[in-house]
Amino acid sequence: MNWITRERPKIDRIACPWLIRKFIDKDACFFYVPFDQVIEKSKLLKAIPFDVPGVELTHQNNLCTFDALIKKYKLTDPALHVMAPIVRGADTDQHNLASQCAGLWAIAAGMAHNIKDDLELVQAGSVIYDALYTWAKHLQNIKHTESPVEQLLVDVYKKFLKKGSNDKIPVWATELKTIIQDQIDTNITLSLTDISIELNVNPTYVSREFSKYFNNLSFGEYIRKLRIDKAIVFIETSAYSLSEIAYLTGFSDQSHFTRIFKQAKGITPSEYKKNTLKSKIRSKS
User: Fold this and answer.
1) Rounded to two decimals, what is the model's pTM?
2) Within 13 Å and on the Cβ side, how many CA atoms surround 26?
């Protein structure tokens, strides 16, 4: 039987041919054509169109064509139902559906970039889905570190990290510190996510690793510390009022400034200011 879809496949249009040949039509022949020719060519070739708007086998609500094939042909293999959310998440940018989604997308995107012939790409991609199916059917509960040797290597690596053997500060941490210093006075809504995107580093990774390079403080704690330090400089060296200092150091209002300052220093800004003035008077006398 002939099947036809859009050219330049990545996820769904490679996963579906794999599924069709393995579980639906072992003699399937696939055609990849420009988007606007799929329906017309399907009639000429007497081919079943898939993964294009307006046909039966395509995306429906939050599901992708891989899901539609499983449903239509009543495929009950449990391994396919493990694979389905992985394919769906990778194909629809819902990487939260399964931990494997982002990896599948990365591999598929790289393959599509390297292989320009669609049929060759499908053949190469089938190896990936064969492997994913085997994992889903036999290996999904097996850990890489179940081997004693692998676990030993992991233990050694963890001990190495605990000893702090890697003292080199990564480039992203150095650049992040510079960005924070540059923006701390002008950008009240300084966001770790925005900065991470600017650095082209995954925000989740930066959030997890941040404290290692910033005095064991989280991003929020580090920002508050810088702002309190700046406020102390203003209190000790300027004639600004506390409300003006709160504004200049990025706090939403004076009460917010007072609360955070007391948490950090154990006394209020006004108490700190009085103590500073007393110290200056004593030093002059």
Assistant:
1) 0.55
2) 0
